[in-house]
Structures
1.
Amino acid sequence: TRPLLIAPSILAADFAKLGDEVRAIDAAGADWVHVDIMDGHFVPNISFGPDVMKSVRAASKKVFDVHLMISPADPYLEAFAKAGADIITVHVEAGPHLHRSLQAIRALGKKAGVVMNPGTPASSIESVIDMVDLVLVMSVNPGFGGQAFIPSALDKIRAIRAMIGGRPIDLEVDGGVTAANAADVVRAGANVLVAGSAVFKGGQYKENIAAIRNAGAI
Ligand code: DX5
Ligand code: ZN
């Protein structure tokens, strides 16, 4: 089984001091930095683009896990690769050519991830499972931090864990993850926990990350 990793989402950070926020979560014990890219079209919110991502990349040597909530994604894959992404994850729902998008990410020398919305079944990724390094299960409808975890995500995590079998693929969960549900999420088969509000709340990043990690260490 793969190691448990905590990936704070900088969507919940103070954008006025994004570099400092990334340094702070790095020092507080984050394993990865989860970067949410939103285009106001695929999701009803806008975050930031590759130039901002490139500037904050300099603040940490940790893995930058880039979650693209944009459609189309293909025209921007190279920009995010050049901006310093380590993993680039595209949505099943973002376009008709998921296979091409994943090929393009690997051709750029980056790890490829695939993600599905709560309304999209686990079976939607069967045809591409051998093309990915990471599968991300959304446990909220993407667009905003601070939403409640959707319990049916647990069944989907179990189904995808079975689909992965012995492949060296990380299984990540994003949306409403807290210390209170981390054990359920890990028990269902996830090994990478994204957390935005649960990490940044109250400014106690180290304690918050440790609480999620301890709860998930089952
Ligand atoms: C939602 C984003 C998430 C979000 C998580 O569209 O993909 O990464 O920032 O935030 P919390 O942990 O607050 O649900
Ligand atoms: Zn995300």
2.
Amino acid sequence: MNLSEFSDSIGFISGSGSIRSTELSETPPLCSKCGRRPSIYYRPYSGERLCGPCFKESLRERVERTISKYDMLRFDSRVAVGISGGKDSLGLLHMLKDIEGKYPRSELVAVSIDEGVSGYRNEAIAIATEACGRLGVEHHVLSFRDLFGVTMDGIASEPRELSPCSYCGVLRRRALNEAARRVDADRLATAHNLDDMAQTTMLNVLRGDMNRLALMHPGGNKLPGFVRRVKPYCEVPERESTLYAYLMGFRFQELPCPYAPEAMRNDVRGFLNRMEEKRPGTKFIVYNTALKLTSKRKVITVANRCQKCGEPTRGETCRVCQIMEELAKVHHSDS
Ligand code: SF4
Ligand code: ZN
């Protein structure tokens, strides 16, 4: 999809969310920021109309503000950026590369996790490698196969209790932390956008999971054994992340993973998108409510070490080891 097809599909220019034929023949209003160039994007939650350069600039300023608001980076941080090859993570990489220029003692390194989803992840990693080459950023890939001896294709093909994403999420969190440790990073930046954060808030509420809600802080928690995770894209709506990627003109993967996200997240995504359309700003409100709740909770500590692998955990055995045990049992009963 190119920018004009994408713009047609979601109606960037119109204030109502769709472009009417009469509007297409009219000259778009001028940008509310520079007042010189024609606007290409209407931002419903602020009422601004922005031209391409002012839109990119405003998004970069927002990410910089988020970084300083949550004290995400230090002047000499070595930041591992988790990149999947999708629009969000490559957009974040471009922005951090730009911002890094202001901090000469900081370092940026990209890490990708290969979950082993054939026909999907290989293409994404090739795109990620190409982007890193262009930006001159060191890139490391760590695979589930090397780290755990399994692939998502293997897990998905076996009988199992949970959705593929439930396994993938746990293993990928561990793999990303391990990748960040291996490159000696003191920060791990991931590209969760505002939509991801609002959806996760709702999912945690629907599941009654207060602990996960408390861990949602975008500035990350200082936990022993974990590289501090930061989410500089947490206030960037998905729609704006997509527009940024198109305007920057970098290639990104558009194919969805064949193990589609869980049904409940899809329901929540649909609900939030409908609410946002009716009441612009809903996603910010949902996410900010989670932040207010997390500030009232005591800081989560991870005091134990897993009896099997020695990684930090709240129980006796970590989730990764529980999953590996479950998979070994299924495999054993098959053979
Ligand atoms: Fe993993 Fe699910 Fe994402 Fe696919 S959609 S990469 S299985 S979390
Ligand atoms: Zn373990």
3.
Amino acid sequence: MSKPHIIAIPFPAQGHVMPLMEFSQCLARHGFKVTFVNTEHIHKQIVNAISDESYIRHDHVHLVSIPDGLESQEERNGPRLLSEAIQAVMHQNLEDLIEKLNKEEGAKITCLIADESCGWALEVAQKLKIARVVAFWPAAAATLVLNFCIPKLIHEGIIEYDGTVLKSQMVQLAPKMPMIKSTNFVWACTGNSSTQKILFQFMERTTKNAKLVDWLVCNSTYEMEPTAFALEPQILPIGPLLASSRLGNSAGSLWPTDSTCLNWLDKKPPCSVIYVAFGSTTVFNQTQFQELALALELSNRPFLWVVRPDTSDNIPYPEGYHDRVGSNGLMVSWAPQQNVLAHPSIACFLSHCGWNSTMEGVSNGVPFLCWPYFADQFINESYICDVWEVGLGFDKNESGIITQGEIKNKIEHLLGDKDFKARASKLKEMAMTTVKEGGQSNKILKNLIEWIKS
Ligand code: UDX
């Protein structure tokens, strides 16, 4: 008998592709055949990054692609938002793909799993009457709860009907929930006001669709966010989804990983290295880049710093930097982050607080220094610093810069206070227990698997 066939559709961005790939690998291990649908643009990057090409022809997670509607690199860099292009063309492309697969021998799609941000894909599932539909949320439940609360925010006069922020104020939906400044709402802290309105509409549409699915699962845990899950019981935790799945291949990574840094870490004492990484999209201006470089030098501790080539295009390191730092610091363009965070030499994680990075740090009991830029990163920072108390944030100076002195002081504060590490270790234990036999995330995942098979 052929295996039940799932089609999985991530939102086309690194922080979305990787966790859905982990989820898909987990489902494949449980006996499903999974067709994983990237945009052509993302697919090309993944293929370039994969060292073992046979992965693409892997029996149970099969990588395929469809166009996203942006024709050229110029258009990709231009004003038309990817989310607009996606909404215009991808539903038809997906429909055609599913119809083609359904005609193949033993390949009929029985379940569609789409990123919650792909409301258009959930609409295709409804139209094609796919029997089982799951929305997957790769970020904190609290972020989704905030999206669900948009009508309340409008009613309370915090935002306008089009998402425009009317009042700058701190918002906390309930005690023990993260705090967020209204001007940092996910749609409100990116681009100009017309971009923000498009994003807001996009989010309203996806949130509406997410309410219609059979299952809405989230890469988080009850233990980390009890209040958020209590506020929206429809959202179910199945995280942390990481695990050993990424060790054997780099499927899902958009850049080739430089694993030589693991040998470098092997030579460092336990709990000594500052790991610095800002995810897949954040970029620096020259002043901020150089302040960070000088702070790491000043800290006089070993550091491993991920400097993506596009993070620092044409920004020079401070004069004589590499010579002064010597073997105390290593810069790589893309690290095997999960392996790095699991390495015993890591003392702390200076992070932009993307949710995947947050889950990966938490799952390894690593304390954080928080440097959020946009989207859900402010909510995640509040969880880390205010709710779980496993990290510290930075203060900017009057010119909006985080200075080398500030960074150095916070490094010393965090590493000088053993309570941060103790709380981080406790949080790790909770996160690991929930995915073991009898744990909450484990039970939910098992139920989901049974339901898809039924
Ligand atoms: C984006 C948003 O920034 C984030 O806030 C949201 O929650 C998801 O989408 P991104 O910026 O890429 O994500 O950050 P993050 O969520 O942390 O995901 C980055 C992923 O890339 C992580 O899984 C991390 O392990 C991986 N990574 C990062 C590497 O494998 N190597 C690196 O060198 C850096």
